[in-house]
């Protein structure tokens, strides 16, 4: 096993980790402000990726400028995901705030199903995997036996930047302050003049925008997207958030990298089992949740009696 | 002299930087009623939550009839004979009154699967017996509850809900009963009736020990044998009601240091 | 309100009879307008029973005369089966609806009573079928025991999976079950031990030597070989129904409801939330597994597709649609959800989309489901008061 091989896997793992972290952050943010799990989140990722695909194809048919196509694709993805996230949050999650948590889980799961099925039925030939265009420069950097495309490096750096920016947004800005205040205690936050509904919708918008970027990164890196990928991403993102500590900010990021790391490790140590890649991922989810059902890092304060 | 039913020593509960209970030493003998008073946030409900195993104390020990409480889960503490009401009603509002009260008695019932599936006749007899018992008990507090045992608990007023909660705790036949502000929101007349009912129940089970959290000094005077005052999680007074109203520390805690 | 016994009993006979007549019409219907008419009629009856004074009185009468209503349902089932005795497709449909309803009774015990969101119901159902395939293929175990084994394997595996999670509160059960469902389907697809994507063959159900696959006539009258399956499926549903009712109307019923609604209050009164949630999950999964085993034997094969997430969502849709905790609601919803897309081909492709939208509407505007769970009334001496 040489260094280049390991470096390649390390790179793959980092990429996967950033994507998982971005999705897990959304789960954690929603849980923080509303104490709910919005399970449609994985499908919002898919929606973002398909919106980008549509916009890129449209721009590509008008002007042959890959850079412009990429930017507009990204914007379309963010707009579509934000809209979906806010509509689901405003019409389905908020009204069910005082219902049993399983009802919220169910209603968002069904909302995700609608997104998934709408993509499958609405996109021409939507039931099959769709190629995602390569829009970034395709030169490669070679260091010894390790070779990596500039496009991949760009994606990874952009992802890391987005994660850092989100952290900054939540810890340093007014919206972030409102989000944290509502997460701490909604009633006190409202008393001190914070608009609860707007803050919650803002959180949904923020989380969904992250999902959109994650969706585009997936498409750009793997060059292929499909309608049902949101389910797996949702499960892993949710699991990463749980293991990292639902409601916390750093936890889900670490959780995302943890899952990516374990998944990569499985691929390295058991190369023959590549067919079992997904099986291993789900087994890890089950094992980690079984071992640490309340998270590795932090647990939210116990319920008031 | 026998050991007290409940003996707590050095009970301390911290939430982060906040000290909710600070080195409490409290002993409760069989057959006594303790009136537990103190300003809001002085740690009364926290004390109950620690005693019922919902919170794990930061330090200290508590024994119920010489058995360590904190070695047990909440359900084991319940089975050992501690029953309580909650400050904010915790009833199953969609379930019938009977279901709610029966919950208190479940720990004395056959809960094996086979007993439910294959011994329906015995089960039915047990249920009928409990229905009678619940009806009698509820009748004592409010006949209107007793005649509507199979209406959802959510269809009752807050006061009746609190009565249902008290019935649920009493039917458990506890050794130690913790009542968390049972008269909150009641008129003086309703409170008086509730206390009459409680006193009557009390006479029938002479060994029962009760800790009653209450703001109404009249109620404390009527029902308690001894009073304990908490302030900032610390016990600042223990003694008779007469001594309580004379005590300067208590007056300071309630009225502020200006007086 | 019908005061004396007779009108009440008449109502308790009329409503189930009407429901089964509608079901029979649906089974025989071939034209689209017929099916739409049945669906609209079904909804109209529901609205009348729910929203009008006489309707509510009739519904209350059905609940009060429960045994009469249930007896009517049994007779009506037999009549429907006999009417369609030679129709392969209709009987297959009845058997499928009955077995799904059996699984959904189990799911009801888990979700409505225990509050445990099981998003892998179809995976466990398929697991029951795979158990049957392995046991009938490799052992000479009597087939009734194979059914029982399907239930046992499913419940034990589910319990091992969930026990660590049941000790805590929260959404983690949902996550674990979703992950398990996806894992099982993936594993069955890539692993050749269980036949890979093609799945496994299962011999016909043959209890006490009566091979269901070879039955072509009963007492000299020609019947479809699906008739015994439909009868067995209906009987299985009857048993699951009875068991669920016994459970609900018992101390355990109160215990399970208590740990669902308020685990804190329940635990201070001596109940262990983990124990009662595990009990609900175990019993529910056993029902799902047995139903799956019989379903596999009826179909003659099992493959990983049945374990898909979409199938699990369909089962959950049935439970939510019918009304969490209402077993007759579950039957009605099974019939509508499973039979309608088969009969109304144009919606087949859109069925998941439609179910999802309907479930969202239910959760948003009528969280109790079409037929909400009635209040439990224990005690036999004087029944309901007031």
UniProtKB/TrEMBL annotation, chain A:
Membrane topology: Multi-pass membrane protein
Keywords, sorted A to Z: Amino-acid transport, Cell inner membrane, Cell membrane, Membrane, Transmembrane, Transmembrane helix, Transport
Entry GO MF terms: L-isoleucine transmembrane transporter activity; L-leucine transmembrane transporter activity; L-phenylalanine transmembrane transporter activity; L-valine transmembrane transporter activity
Record's subcellular location: Cell membrane
A Gene Ontology cellular-component term: plasma membrane
Domain of life: Bacteria
Parts of the chain that traverse the membrane: 14-37, 44-63, 69-95, 102-123, 143-165, 200-221, 227-246, 253-273, 279-297
PANTHER family with a match to the protein in the record: BRANCHED-CHAIN AMINO ACID TRANSPORT SYSTEM PERMEASE PROTEIN LIVH (PTHR11795), HIGH-AFFINITY BRANCHED-CHAIN AMINO ACID TRANSPORT SYSTEM PERMEASE PROTEIN LIVH (PTHR11795:SF371)
Name the record gives this protein: High-affinity branched-chain amino acid transport system permease protein LivH
Organism whose genome encodes this protein: Methylobacterium symbioticum
Gene symbol of the encoding locus: livH_1
UniProtKB/TrEMBL annotation, chain B:
Protein name (Swiss-Prot/TrEMBL): High-affinity branched-chain amino acid transport ATP-binding protein LivF
UniProt KW keywords: ATP-binding, Nucleotide-binding, Transport
Any GO BP: L-valine import across plasma membrane
Cytoplasm as UniProt keyword: no
InterPro entries according to UniProt: AAA+_ATPase, ABC_AA/LPS_Transport, ABC_transporter-like_ATP-bd, P-loop_NTPase
Gene Ontology CC entries for this record: plasma membrane
PANTHER family documented for this protein: AMINO ACID ABC TRANSPORTER ATP-BINDING PROTEIN, CONSERVED COMPONENT OF ABC TRANSPORTER FOR NATURAL AMINO ACIDS-RELATED
Domain of life of the native organism: Bacteria
Keyword Transmembrane helix tagged: no
From TrEMBL, chain C:
Membrane topology value: Multi-pass membrane protein
InterPro entries per the UniProt record, alphabetical: ABC_transp_permease, LivM-like
UniProtKB keywords: Cell membrane, Membrane, Transmembrane, Transmembrane helix
Signal peptide: none
Coiled-coil ranges from the UniProt annotation: none
Primary subcellular site in the record, as a coarse category: membrane
Bilayer-spanning residue ranges: 12-29, 64-84, 90-109, 116-135, 141-163, 170-188, 226-244, 278-298, 318-340, 352-371
Compartment(s): Cell membrane
Molecular function GO terms recorded: branched-chain amino acid transmembrane transporter activity
GO cellular component, one term: plasma membrane
Record PANTHER family: HIGH-AFFINITY BRANCHED-CHAIN AMINO ACID TRANSPORT PROTEIN BRAE, HIGH-AFFINITY BRANCHED-CHAIN AMINO ACID TRANSPORT SYSTEM PERMEASE
Protein name as it appears in the record: High-affinity branched-chain amino acid transport system permease protein LivH
Source organism of the structure: Methylobacterium symbioticum
């Amino acid at each position: 096993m040489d260094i280049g091989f390991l470096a390649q896997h390390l790179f793959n793992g980092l990429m996967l980790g950033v994507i998982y972290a971005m999705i897990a952050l959304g789960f954690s943010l929603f849980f923080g402000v509303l104490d709910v799990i919005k399970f449609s989140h994985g499908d919002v990722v898919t929606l973002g990726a398909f919106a980008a695909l549509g916009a890129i194809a449209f721009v590509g048919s008008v002007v042959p400028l890959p850079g412009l196509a990429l930017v507009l694709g990204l914007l379309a993805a963010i707009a579509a995901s934000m809209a979906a996230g806010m509509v689901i949050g405003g019409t389905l999650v908020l009204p069910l705030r005082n219902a049993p948590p399983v009802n919220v889980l169910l209603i968002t799961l069904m909302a995700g199903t609608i997104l998934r099925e709408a993509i499958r039925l609405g996109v021409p030939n939507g039931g099959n995997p769709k190629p995602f265009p390569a829009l970034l420069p395709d030169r490669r950097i070679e260091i010894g036996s390790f070779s990596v495309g500039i496009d991949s490096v760009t994606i990874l750096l952009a992802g890391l930047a987005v994660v850092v920016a989100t952290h900054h947004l939540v810890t340093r800005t007014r919206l972030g302050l409102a989000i944290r205040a509502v997460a701490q205690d909604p009633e006190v936050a409202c008393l001190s003049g914070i608009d609860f509904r707007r803050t919650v919708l803002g959180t949904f918008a923020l989380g969904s925008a992250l999902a959109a970027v994650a969706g585009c990164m997936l498409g750009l890196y793997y060059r292929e997207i499909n309608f049902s990928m949101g389910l797996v991403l949702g499960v892993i993102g949710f699991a990463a958030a749980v293991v990292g500590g639902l409601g916390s900010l750093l936890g889900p990021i670490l959780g995302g990298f943890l899952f990516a790391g374990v998944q990569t490790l499985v691929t390295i140590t058991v190369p023959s089992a590549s067919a079992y890649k997904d099986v291993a991922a789900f087994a890890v989810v089950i094992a980690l949740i079984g071992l640490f059902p309340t998270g590795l890092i932090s647990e939210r304060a116990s319920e008031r009696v | 002299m026998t050991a007290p039913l409940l003996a707590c020593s050095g009970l301390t509960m911290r939430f982060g930087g906040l000290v909710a209970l600070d080195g409490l030493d409290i002993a409760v003998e069989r057959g006594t009623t303790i009136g537990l008073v103190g300003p809001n946030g002085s740690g009364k409900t926290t004390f109950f939550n620690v005693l019922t195993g919902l919170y794990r104390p930061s330090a200290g020990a508590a024994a119920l009839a010489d058995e360590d409480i904190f070695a047990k889960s909440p359900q084991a503490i319940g089975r050992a004979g501690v029953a309580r009401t909650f400050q904010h009603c915790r009833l199953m509002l969609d379930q019938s009154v009977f279901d709610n009260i029966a919950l208190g008695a479940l720990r004395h019932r056959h809960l094996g699967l086979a007993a439910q599936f294959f011994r329906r006749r015995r089960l039915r007899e047990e249920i009928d017996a409990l229905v009678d018992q619940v009806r009698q008990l509820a009748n004592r507090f409010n006949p209107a509850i007793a005649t509507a045992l199979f209406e959802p608990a959510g269809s009752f007023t807050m006061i009746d809900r609190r009565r249902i909660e008290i019935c649920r705790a009493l039917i458990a036949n506890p050794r130690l009963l913790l009542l968390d502000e049972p008269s909150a929101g009641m008129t003086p007349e309703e409170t008086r009736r509730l206390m009459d009912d409680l006193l009557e129940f009390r006479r029938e089970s002479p060994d029962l020990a009760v800790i009653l959290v209450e703001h109404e000094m009249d109620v404390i005077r009527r029902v308690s044998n001894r009073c304990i005052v908490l302030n900032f999680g610390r016990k600042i007074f223990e003694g008779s009601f007469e001594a309580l109203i004379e005590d300067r520390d208590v007056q300071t805690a309630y009225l502020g240091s200006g007086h | 309100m019908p005061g004396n016994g007779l009108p009440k009993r008449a109502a308790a006979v009329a409503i189930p009879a009407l429901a089964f007549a509608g079901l029979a019409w649906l089974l025989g219907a071939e034209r689209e307008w017929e099916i739409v008419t049945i669906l609209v009629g079904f909804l109209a009856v529901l609205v009348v029973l729910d929203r009008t004074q006489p309707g509510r009185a009739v519904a209350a009468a059905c609940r009060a005369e429960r045994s009469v209503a249930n007896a009517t349902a049994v007779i009506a089932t037999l009549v429907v089966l006999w009417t369609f005795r030679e129709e392969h497709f209709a009987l297959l449909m009845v058997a499928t609806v009955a077995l799904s309803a059996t699984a959904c009774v189990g799911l009801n015990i888990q979700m409505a009573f225990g509050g445990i969101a099981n998003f892998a119901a179809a995976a466990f159902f398929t697991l029951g079928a795979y158990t049957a395939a392995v046991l009938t293929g490799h052992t000479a175990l009597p087939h009734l025991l194979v059914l029982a084994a399907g239930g046992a394997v499913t419940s034990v595996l589910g319990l091992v999976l969930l026990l660590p999670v049941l000790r805590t509160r929260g959404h983690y059960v949902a996550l674990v079950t979703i992950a398990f469902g996806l894992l099982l389907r993936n594993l069955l697809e890539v692993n050749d031990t269980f036949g890979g994507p093609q799945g496994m063959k299962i011999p016909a159900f043959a209890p006490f030597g009566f091979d269901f696959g070879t039955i072509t006539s009963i007492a000299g009258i020609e019947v479809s070989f699906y008739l015994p399956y439909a009868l067995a499926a209906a009987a299985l549903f009857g048993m699951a129904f009875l068991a669920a009712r016994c459970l609900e109307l018992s101390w355990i019923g109160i215990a399970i409801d208590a740990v669902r609604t308020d685990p804190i209050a329940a635990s201070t009164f001596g109940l262990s939330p983990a124990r009662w949630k595990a009990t609900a999950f175990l019993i529910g999964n056993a029902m799902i597994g047995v139903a799956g085993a019989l379903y596999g034997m009826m179909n003659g094969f099992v493959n990983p597709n049945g374990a898909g997430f979409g199938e699990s969502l369909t089962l959950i849709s049935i439970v939510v649609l019918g009304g969490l905790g209402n077993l007759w609601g579950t039957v009605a919803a099974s019939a509508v959800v499973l039979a309608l897309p088969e009969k109304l081909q144009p919606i087949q492709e859109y069925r998941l989309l439609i179910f999802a939208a309907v479930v969202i509407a239910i959760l948003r505007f009528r969280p109790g489901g079409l037929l909400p769970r009635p209040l439990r009334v224990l005690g036999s001496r004087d029944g309901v008061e007031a």
